[in-house]
Each structure stands twice: as structure tokens, then as C-alpha cells.
Amino acid sequence: MKLRQLTVALSLSMIGASLAHAQTDSVARTREDSTVRAVVQSYLYGLKFNDTVGLHEAFWPEARLFAIRPNGQINELTQAKWYGMFAKNARQEEKGDLRIASVDITGNAAAVKVVEDYPGSRYTDYLNLLHISGRWWIVNKIYTMERR
């Protein structure tokens, strides 16, 4: 009988430890998800209000942006060239709905899908983030645009 009680007590102890570990992991995942989303929200704010400060806060200094041109060739933008495109409309709000569609985090890497619906087009961005020097940064962006 004592062996059975000991076995039950050990089993319950192991289950409790597993649940506590799972709960700790869940809290950590939720915190990382919130932190990644905050970086992407800074990016979306920069797009929505033509604000390069918000973009600088989100992008790693050497990040690049890639898309396919209508002729099928790859288009690569440096941040300096991309930020220059915002100058004409600096701090003006764009009409459109910008949202995070999905977030996937594994360790120190994350992938975020963003959808930007504007009056005449839809952009879909795939952002790659890395946790560098204690914070998340967008290190790469690929995107596509559809006319409507």
C-alpha cells in the first residue's frame, strides 16, 4: 500500500512540475509574441504615417527589402532608398487598413505576415525578425503588391 501511495505522490509531483513548466513557457511565448508585435506595429505606424522614425525603430540598420518587378526581375531596396520614397508625404496619413495577419516565433527568430489594404492595391509583406542584442529587429522584408 505504501508503495502505491508513493507512486501516486511521485506521479502527482511530476505532473505538477510539468504543468508549472508549461505555464512558464506559455508566459514567455506570450511575452515574446507581444514584443515582436510591438516592433511590427512600429513598422506599420511608419507606413501609415510616412514616418521614417518608426521605420528606423523597427529595422536592423542593414536590413534589405525585396520584391519582384513586373518584368520578373528581383527588386532590392536599401533602407536609405526606401526611406527617401517617404519624404514627399512625410507625416501624412495614408488611407488604408494595415494589420498583422500572423506571427510565428521559434527561439530567437520570428516570421510575421502583414497585409496592407490601400484604396487601389494590397501589399502582403513577409517580415523576418531576429532577437539581437536584447531586442527584436526586422532584418529582412519581402513583399508583393496586387492592383485592385
Please outline the helices and strands.
Blueprint lengths: L1 H47 L3 H7 E10 L5 E5 H6 L12 E10 L2 E10 L2 E12 L2 E13 L1
Shape: elongated
Low-confidence stretches at least 5 residues in length (pLDDT < 50)? none
Residue-averaged pLDDT = 88
Question: What integer value in Å does the Rg equal?
Answer: 22 Å
Largest sheet: 6 strands, mixed
Order of helices and strands: HHEEHEEEE
Structure description:
With 148 residues, the chain is an alpha+beta fold. Helices cover 41% and strands 41% of the residues. The protein has helices at 2-48, 52-58, 79-84, and strands at residues 59-68, 74-78, 97-106, 109-118, 121-132, 135-147. The longest helix has 47 residues, at 2-48. It starts with a helix and ends with a strand.
Supply database-style keywords.
single chain; alpha+beta
Short description:
The protein has 148 residues and is an alpha+beta fold.
